[in-house]
Fold each of these.
Amino acid sequence: MTVPAAILHVPHSSSEVPADVRLQFLLDDKDLADELRLMTDWHTAELFDLPADEAVTVRFPVSRLVTDPERFADPEAERMEAVGMGAVYTKTSHGAPLRDKAEAAREREALLARYYRPHHAVLEAATAAALDAHGRCLIVDCHSFPSRPLPYEFKVSADRWSVIHRPAVCIGTDATLPPHAPFSHAGMHTPQWLRERAAEACAEMLGRWPDGGAPDPAFTADEATQEGPGKAVAGIAFDRPFAGALVPLPYLGSERRVHAVMIELRRDLYMDEGSGARLAGFAGGAAAVKAALRRLIA
Ligand SMILES: [Zn+2]
């Protein structure tokens, strides 16, 4: 079988917390369930799904609360460390203690060795294989986000408007890496053609979405009049509310043949965010995502 040139990276779909890691958390069972409900990109493994001959899927097998593969392992490089949400979280999305700081520091290396580094090794190997076989590689970083902002988002963004306004789809590009990132590469991995193709694919996807798709939550319309007069709440936005697209470290800022884009779906498009249940149109939504992915990697 030929190696596909595309990789689907699914970092946040699991809610699995191994029993020994559970002991590190300072939350009771109810609060932990709430945090997992808010922070897990539910059902993204089923939504972003292509056969193995079309794309290599690299899915993180445990919850991001165990360790978050989307963060830089180097704390100096990771701006989310400032809110206790670097590679090993010490805070919840509401800023409550998740782990004791000293224990997190003690456990950090073991967690990275057990989950983070093996995951990145798989991702790097898949990237190298695609480059070998095709001379290029496209990594699609597959996520979803809550329809209402979580408190931590306001702490890491200087722009309140971009946190409050929740497009149906957020397309993340590497052009806007956080200012503290240790690299300056001016969007090398998301060239203009990829931005355009991602926007087209996502627009088509929303057009196919069951029930017409992309109903923006009513509250954003209210907020729009209060805070951003004249600015429409678009169905698709670039790099808001979340910016960036993951590129494996050995290639970041240096290998132009590695292309990357992030696709984030607003969760109310496909699930009931309170119960976690899939909406009736889930299968139709998944089919629309699949078509968009095929268009993106063609
Ligand atoms: Zn995510």
Note: The pocket of zinc ion is lined by residues 12, 41, 143 (CB under 6 Å).
Amino acid sequence: MGRPASQAADAAVCARCALQGPTCCSMEPGREEFCFPLSETEQARVRECLPDSGGFVLQDNSVAFVDGVCRLFPDEDALVRALFPPRKQHLRLAVDGQGACRLLGPAGCLLPREARPYYCRLFPFWVTGGEIMIFDAPGCLVRRESKTIPAALALLGMTRAQVLDLHGRLRLLWGLPPRPGMAAVKRGF
Ligand code: SF4
């Protein structure tokens, strides 16, 4: 799940992607446990915009889910496992029977860009070891049309600094400590 199709602030590539089929705002039914976790702060932002959206559900911290989050933060395994202990639950976005996010409307995400979860705003980018990478998502048109990270950033009208900033904010909301050089981020939200 990630970038929606047709908010004015979104890149044209997302609208073109949506014309070709399901976007990153949908997931394969049955794989809901792998949806990214949502912090209380992100949930509150969504509720401010859409008080009755019913856009969230509680999800068990399954072994598969926690292993997946550990892969996102490869050198912080112990910390991630402490944040998502067994037999507890976390919040995630709710999806319909076809796997589409409940916050996805006919013309794209119902939320203004600044109210969307950080993972949505980052996708298809991620940061590992301080370096920006792009998820190997075969359905993502940005992925298919970009041979390099700078090309993908340009296609989405994003900068490297924006990606690093969003990832730093996501880390903090998910409960991970700031990376060196990210102290300013903490004051920013
Ligand atoms: S919150 Fe918006 S951007 Fe994120 S998955 Fe749902 S519809 Fe897409």
Note: Residues 1, 4, 25, 93, 101, 103-104, 109, 111, 116-117, 120 surround iron/sulfur cluster (CB under 6 Å).
Amino acid sequence: MDIKGIDKEYVAGTYARFPLQLVSGKGSLVYDENGKEYIDLGTGIAVNAFGVADEKWQQAVIAQIGQIQHTSNLYYNAPCALLAKELCKRTGLKKVFFSNSGAEANECAIKAARKYGADKKGKEYDTIITLKNSFHGRTITTLSATGQDVFHEHFTPMTDGFVHAEPNDIEHMKRLVKAHKCCGIMIELVQGEGGVTALQPAYVKAVAELAKQEDLLFIVDEVQTGNGRMGELYAYMVYGIEPDVVTTAKGLGGGLPIGATMLGEKADVFTPGLNGSTFGGNPVCAAGALSILQRLDKTVLDGVKERSEYVFRELTGAKGIKSVSGLGLMIGVECEKDASAVIAGCMEKGVLVIKAKQKVRLLPALNISWEQLKKAVKIIKEVCAE
Ligand SMILES: Cc1ncc(COP(=O)(O)O)c(C=O)c1O
């Protein structure tokens, strides 16, 4: 079957796909339709936390499918409750709203901020400050939150109530707080789609302090940075701050769709009817997520740090590489060659990497074997140096 042709004919044309069909895999190895093997450093954009067909994750998911695959939120289900408990235990946050994607997790956080502003200061306190170059999702409201004009094109009018601050410029953020009736600040600590750039720690601390002083909900979007990828459970832990709301998705589900909006005491604003989702908290997705979360222990997190240090050490200053950015296992490589040419060269040699702006982006599985990581890094260096 000509899957590529069928896809081109029938799937909405929103994706510029690589010329590759993935059919199976094990851990960090994936195989295309011709049986060619690749070391996967993209993990479905930071989703397959422990790689492909991970046994423990599979067991958790299959066991739950065998019991009950969906309940709706009209009833209690154990994986949903236990996952929420585990997330709260590990973060100190108080409540979790489950959805199906990063965008939805952020929509919920935006609702929480608006509700908080209205309750505390009045309905007109509805503005949320986000950062230029950020990415928060594809719904109209999360696009409005996204501080990149290119994503707004074709879809105006955007949702009102978002202003965008210059990253790493606290004075600009303060000016915006003064100029608008604000209810929240939402930031990514490492801007992913914006080019894998980590915010400066002093700036992040100052933003957290400002949110506290001005009584704004401080939301950290950990859709991509979360769930072990930074060598801590969440990036905010690396930065030593205490957000009021943490949103996540991607790696939490290990390959099944789940979004989570974790709400601290200040952000515990929801009452029945104020938010909801048919699939949110689905028992199969939650069972898979719980199995992932329970395995993100010190050994795995230390392993992420070691792998990250290795990649930074190997690639920084290597021939054909201008700079290496990011944090943990979310790494951006600025190459002398065009990023697309590097991606194609790596693919040819059996390594899958992806793009973020003009950088090559690496998002390997948290437990990628050293042998596979070393082999992949060697190939990236060869391709960049050619
Ligand atoms: C930081 C961040 N927020 C939100 C999103 C949107 O997530 P989703 O595609 O699951 O809606 C993404 C996706 O790349 C992201 O990186």
Note: The first strand starts at residue 22 and ends at 26.
